[in-house]
């Protein structure tokens, strides 16, 4: 009997050890799951994400905002963290965060009101904007002068530094025929300034980082689909951007310009002439089409010497996926309808019947 009791106690001990081991494994697994769940969603990605906390917003609502913005790795773990950490000092504000921040870092920054993560102001580079317009938008919010910004963006030494840093910037930027070297390379977007005294170099790199993010996924397509360099592609896409009044027209207009390039025809784009003349509008005289500028696609065949405006990703995609056709001409009516034609004679007839300016 004594031996049997000893055997029972021995078996019980083994079972307890196994149970404890299972509990430890479960706890370790749960801890690992939890730690992973509140980790950064994309380590190394410093893309800025703006979160605006309105007055009276609860912490669970803030967690939902963070989740919708792609800043929460696991929402269940996020809820657990919020319950445990109980962040209760978050002030209504606009916070500039990034995807390489853990949930702990995010709530710590918001709960402490760290000035480094609070947006001081924001500026927007609109789609189709030119360099002077982009500089003006930044100047209005940053306290920097438009003149100083433009001067920096034209500084050869600074441009060479940028060319070394970004794969899509090349010596094309140093061409003396360019009006503004960085034209077309400043991605149209709303950007947030977290510093009280922002530096134009840091602002510029933030914008170029966004352009890098948009261009990198289509790098191969630019070469395989259009056989263009990035500089040529942005020049092409910028013309399509300014020539297209409506989204539905862009792929077809891109196809028309692609046809003209393939047939070694001049693009004859009025908006390139207007850019050369520093003008806006739609009317271009015959005399103006003779202006001696490498942007003038009446006088010089092929693409303009450089981009003429900021281009959004959707226009880039429309250019890569242009609509094949036999059209070589198009004309926009006063109501915005675009009429296409295959021959110059057809085009002239359309213009005569529909010209409104």
TrEMBL record:
Q: What is this protein called?
A: Endolytic murein transglycosylase
Which top-level group of life is the source organism from?
Answer: Bacteria
Q: Which organism is it from?
A: Hominibacterium faecale
Q: Which gene encodes it?
A: mltG
What is the protein's major site of localization? membrane
First-tier enzyme category under EC: lyase
Q: Which residues form the signal peptide?
A: none
Residue ranges of the TM segments = 12-35
Subcellular localization(s) per the UniProt record: Cell membrane
């Amino acid at each position: 009997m004594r031996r049997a009791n000893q055997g029972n106690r021995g078996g019980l001990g083994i079972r307890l050890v196994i149970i404890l081991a299972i509990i430890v494994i479960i706890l370790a697994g749960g801890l690992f799951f939890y730690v992973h769940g509140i980790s950064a969603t994309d380590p190394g990605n410093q893309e800025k994400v703006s979160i605006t906390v309105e007055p009276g917003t609860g912490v669970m609502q803030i967690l939902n905002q963070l989740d919708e913005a792609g800043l929460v790795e696991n929402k269940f773990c996020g809820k657990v963290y919020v319950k445990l950490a109980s962040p209760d000092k978050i002030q209504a504000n606009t916070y500039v965060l990034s995807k390489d921040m853990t949930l702990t870092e995010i709530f710590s920054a918001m709960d402490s009101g760290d000035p480094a993560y609070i947006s001081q102001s924001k500026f927007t580079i609109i789609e189709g904007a030119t360099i002077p317009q982009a500089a003006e938008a930044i100047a209005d919010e940053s306290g920097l002068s438009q003149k100083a910004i433009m001067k920096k963006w034209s500084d050869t030494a600074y441009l060479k530094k940028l060319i070394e840093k970004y794969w899509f910037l090349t010596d094309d930027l140093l061409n003396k025929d360019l009006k503004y070297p960085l034209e077309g390379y400043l991605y149209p977007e709303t950007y947030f300034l977290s510093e009280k005294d922002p530096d134009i170099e840091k602002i510029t790199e933030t914008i170029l980082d966004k352009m890098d993010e948009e261009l990198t996924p289509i790098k191969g397509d630019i070469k395989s689909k259009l056989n263009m360099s990035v500089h040529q592609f942005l020049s092409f896409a910028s013309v399509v951007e300014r020539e297209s009044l409506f989204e539905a027209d862009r792929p077809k207009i891109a196809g028309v310009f692609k046809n003209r390039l393939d047939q070694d025809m001049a693009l004859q784009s009025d908006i390139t002439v207007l850019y050369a003349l520093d003008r806006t509008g739609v009317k271009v005289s015959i005399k103006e089409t003779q202006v001696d500028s490498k942007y003038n696609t009446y006088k010089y065949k092929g693409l303009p010497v450089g981009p003429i405006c900021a281009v959004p990703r959707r226009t880039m995609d429309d250019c890569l996926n242009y609509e094949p056709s036999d059209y070589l001409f198009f004309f926009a009516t006063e109501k915005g309808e675009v009429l296409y034609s295959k021959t110059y004679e057809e085009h002239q007839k359309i213009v005569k019947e529909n010209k409104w300016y």
